[in-house]
Design goal:
Blueprint (H helix, E strand, L loop, with lengths): L6 H4 L20 H10 L9 H17 L2 E2 L6 E2 L17 E5 L2 E8 L2 H12 L6 H7 L1 H7 L5 E4 L4 H7 L3 H13 L8 E3 L11 H8 L3 E3 L7 E9 L3 H12 L3 E10 L7
Parallel strand pairs: 4-9, 5-8, 8-9
Antiparallel strand pairs: 1-2, 3-4, 6-7
Helix pairs in contact: 2-3, 5-8, 9-10
The structure holds zinc ion (ZN).
Zinc ion binds next to loops.
Length: about 270
């Protein structure tokens, strides 16, 4: 494993990705979120002490047990081991593996049904808490690839989109996978310098032309073996641009890990 040229960037969390937004999974009513606000607000800052942290951890643990969990695929209340994101009926099966422009790629499943609903909630439903259970699901594709890497790098969001959403879902997923695998996440390695809109009517070459130069590496990554992390991989155009940016910085992209693989008609 490579040493970290910049501790904050090699850490499994980072401001740019909003990884700190990962919270316990609770009912959509956001019980834990309210509890968190209650604990972290106020002038006393008692939560900064070890006792405060212990009380907070206990409070979250209690909520974790007591709060009903709802399957993000079908909305049914669910309990038990598989209730982190899905009920047993909606739980994904074996990972999907393919090659994204000659790079081994693996996803939790195809972008349809419960997995599509989950990704949609994570990206557009203001549910960053889902990054925890969904990030845990990335462990199966990761294991399927069985590759060594020096760092996980998420596909970046444009700063304006990041401000709107409040977090980069790919960064949250990468941070969660990093904590599970021990491979560092380099959440700010790539930067989207030009905003592009998904245009479903474009073919791969047209998408590639639209995205060319839109993503760059912040600094050299000489000889680093990178696993690129995204929520949904569609045509592979975004992957191609990220791979090019990382290779221009001296890195080698050894694999792509994603939550879902979509067909080329539905996104980027
Ligand atoms: Zn379900």
């Amino acid at each position: 494993m490579k040493s970290a040229p910049n501790g904050s960037e090699w850490a499994a969390t980072g401001q740019d990705g909003g990884a700190a937004a990962i919270a316990p999974v609770v009912a959509p009513s956001g019980v834990a979120g309210a509890a968190s606000a209650a604990v972290t607000s106020g002038p006393a800052r008692a939560s900064d002490t070890w006792l405060g942290r212990s009380v907070r951890a206990l409070a979250f643990a209690s909520l974790d047990v007591l709060a009903p969990r709802f399957c993000v695929g079908c909305g049914e209340a669910a309990r038990g081991r598989s209730a982190e994101a899905f009920c047993d009926a909606c739980a994904p099966g074996a990972p999907v593996c393919w090659e994204a422009n000659c790079i081994p790629a693996s996803a939790v499943g195809f972008y349809r049904g419960p997995l599509e609903a989950a990704v949609h909630a994570l990206k557009y439903g203001k549910r960053p808490d889902l990054a925890r259970p969904l990030g845990d699901l990335l462990h199966d594709p990761w294991t399927e690839l069985a590759l060594e890497a020096d760092a996980l790098v998420p596909v970046p969001l444009h700063p304006r989109r990041l401000r709107e959403r409040g977090y980069n879902q790919a960064a949250l997923l990468a941070a969660r996978l990093a904590s599970a695998t021990g491979t560092p996440a380099r959440l700010r390695a790539l930067r989207r310098i030009r905003e592009t809109r998904p245009l479903p009517g474009l073919d791969r070459a047209e998408r590639a032309a639209q995205l060319a130069g839109a993503i760059v590496a912040r600094r050299p990554l000489t000889d680093a073996r990178i696993i690129l992390v995204d929520d949904v991989v569609t045509s592979g155009s975004t992957v191609d641009v990220c791979v090019q940016a990382l290779e221009d910085a001296g890195a080698c992209v050894v694999a792509v890990v994603a939550l879902a693989r979509a067909d080329s008609k539905s996104g980027s």
